[in-house]
Amino acid sequence: MTSQTNIWTGKRRLGDAEVSALGFGCWAIGGPFSDKDGRPLGWGEVDDEESIRAVHCALDLGVTFFDTADVYGAGHSEEVLGRALAGRRDEVVIATKWGNLFDPDTKVLNGNDISPAYARRAVEASLRRLRTDHIDLYQLHPQPSIEEAAPLVDACEKLVAEGLIRGYAWSVDDPERAASFAAGEHGIAVQHELSVLHDDPEMLAMCDRYDIASVNRTPLAMGLLGRRTTGTPTTGTDIRSDTPEWLRFFEDGVPTAEWAKRVNAVREILTSDGRTLAQGALGWIWARSPRTIPIPGFRNVAQAEENAGALRHGPLRTEQLAEIAAVLG
Predict the structure, then answer these.
(1) CA distances (Å), origin 274, targets 228, 280, 310, 313
(2) What is the distance between the alpha carbons of residues 108 and 71, in angstroms, rounded to a whole number?
(3) Measured CA distances, 171 to 56, 174, 188, 217 (Å)
(4) Which of 149, 229, 294, 312 is 20 to 30 A removed from 176 (C-alpha atoms)?
């Protein structure tokens, strides 16, 4: 891999659109919601006005890509993002997800529906909440088999033909599932986990084969590569307080000793050249592939400023990637 330092533009391709190389993930600004057993699925309480200020801050600092899902906050994330982008819709590219069922009144997730008929109902509901006439990237959220999801490619193509969406993808960590959507005419991306703590060369290779964007969730390992330490435990309605099995970085609201040790091993490299830890982690992702678009979460203006500040630094250097690979093995 050659260094991208001298050719860094801070931009990426997403289908026919040009977007900022940094996106903002809007899970956290949806506020609390839970599963049927009462376990939290959000990131804690939020201040909607602060969320809107943070979105405006991101826009002013050059961020043009925002990723959400209809289920985040049981519809609330889309509603807040729609409010925040009022009057500025033509400046941004919006991604959302569908397939989960939820009650907006009780804010409870209660199953999923992957039928083509539900895809249409879901996109129309998201359009209303987002206050827009189209969604730029529409992503399947649940994890059915390739065979079960296959009819949704045709369903998405119909939504493209009607102008309701511009492209589609699957939010999934399995390259074969991702490829089944990428093979569609308007399959333009995959959303998958990628961070300095979780590389995914197989998925990045799949993106190269299909010439699609790599949208990267958990780029900061849910705060482990940012401000969250053993001295700052989460509480209450934060998903990291009642850790599901798949959320391996945390236990009882604090980073596990194993993962904290890995972060400390690469901290000096990531914070070199004047970067914060989070900015270094984002720089690592950009250096991995010219297709990557990390989408760190945010809840306030300070987080928006720090994350957007990573654009000034750009990708890590080739030698820094090699150092990190050597340290983490």
Answers:
(1) 20, 9, 10, 8
(2) 9
(3) 26, 9, 12, 9
(4) 294
Rounded to whole angstroms, how far apart are CA atoms 22 and 64?
Answer: 8
Is 17 a member of any domain? yes
In a domain, 2, yes or no: no
Domain that holds residue 257: 10-328
In a domain, 188, yes or no: yes
d(CA 165, CA 148): 22
pLDDT tens figures, 8-54? 999 999 999 999 999 999 999 999 999 999 999 998 899 999 999 99
Q: Using an 8 Å Cβ cutoff, are 113 and 123 in contact?
A: no
Q: Pick the catalytic residue from 72, 138, 168, 210.
A: 72
Catalytic residue list contains 168: no
For the whole prediction, is pTM greater than 0.85? yes
Structural domain includes residue 4: no
Q: Strand, helix or coil at 203? A: helix
CATH number of 76's domain:
3.20.20.100
State residue 20 phi and psi, 5-degree precision: -65, 145
